[in-house]
Amino acid sequence: MTAGNLLCGFFALWYIVKVTPPVGTDIHFDAESITPALWLILGAFLFDALDGRIARLIGKESPFGLQFDSLADIISFGAAPAFLMQRVILHEFQELGLIVASVYLLCGALRLARYNCLAALPDSDSKKEFLGFPIPASAALVASLTIFIIWLEGKEMTNTMWRWVLLSVLVFLSVMMVSEVKYPAFKTLDFRTRRPFTKFVIFVIGVTCLIVLWELIVPVILPIIFTLYLIYGFIRPRLSRKLRREIEEVDFEED
Question: In the chain, what are the domain boundaries?
Answer without folding.
Answer: 2-248
